[in-house]
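Hi L.,

You mentioned the student needs an example of a multi-chain input paired with its predicted structure. This one should do, with 322 residues in total across all chains.
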Amino acid sequence: MILGLETSCDETAAALITPDGRILSNVVSSQADLHAQYGGVVPEVASRRHLELVTPVVRAALGEAQAELDDVELVGVTAGPGLIGALLVGVAAAKAIAWARRLPLAAVDHLHGHVASLYLEPDPLQLPFLCLLASGGHTMLLDVRERGRPPHVLGTTLDDAAGEAFDKGARLLGLGYPGGAEIDRLARAGDPAAYDFPVARVPGLDFSFSGLKTALLYAVRELGAEELADRRADLAASYQHAIVRALVDRTRRAAKDTGAGTIAVVGGVAANSELRAALPEAALAPLELCTDNGAMIASAARFADPIPYPGYLALDAYASSA
Ligand code: KG4
Ligand code: ZN
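Structure written out for the whole complex:
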């Protein structure tokens, strides 16, 4: 079986899957509560917490799968992009586990990991497909033709990522961190047509969310504290609607331009209920695999070139892909 480790941001995650993509266990320990008091992830705090959690999380994943380290044939770990200190904890843990058993190690790109959440049982997606990847750090349209090669990037965000827009919007509305799920929940009680927030018109297949965030800021500023409490659900619904409209418009346009027969959606924002409803024809990552997890990293590890023992001892994490 394959062990997947993920520590790129504020989730400490480990999973075991079979080579054909059946999930045996998928343990995610979120640090969200720890960072909530600061309104966002504090990198140094995240690194230290990963260090405390990585061993118990791996143990829990083994326990849930009723497996032992001796059953592991390949270790996959997120090597980047992400918070460098956080990544280093996962990479060091993966090296130690692999080295002690002379196992190969696969260095997984976090974005490939999100795409590989679509390759797991019971319903692995067939290629090729057009993939919208929308997370806290990235918003991309990808032309996916091979599982083991980096996909062609058709479009990306010029400023904030979609998840970042959700998180910053939530902060302006006085909601908790992480904000995406909070806005999603609150939006159900609001009117998406109450405010006409702008959808940025950028050329090509790129995205831009910074203007939208500013529009929300102005709308919030015009309201007193009591008024804001009354209008919060309408603001959340309208703001979410604008983000979803931007994502859906660009994705449909990309599908038309490229003639893609299949649209897929992955990443934390793929958990959004309005986005899921707006793309009924799309292959959506299963809800529990949208936000960061170890199963998607183990899945991607199957298609990476594994580094044989002991070459990976020199492996480094990377903060950004550029
Ligand atoms: O993929 P992910 O776990 O981490 C990154 O790779 O960035 O994505 C986290 C992002 C956060 O910005 C969070 O607010 C957003 O996904 N998110 C959502 C929802 N659940 C999580 N955004 C909108 N609606 C949701 N239901
Ligand atoms: Zn992610």
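You could point out the following to them. Strands lie at 2-6, 11-17, 23-30, 74-80, 105-109, 129-134, 139-144, 152-156, 263-266, 283-284. The first strand starts at residue 2 and ends at 6.

Best wishes,
N.
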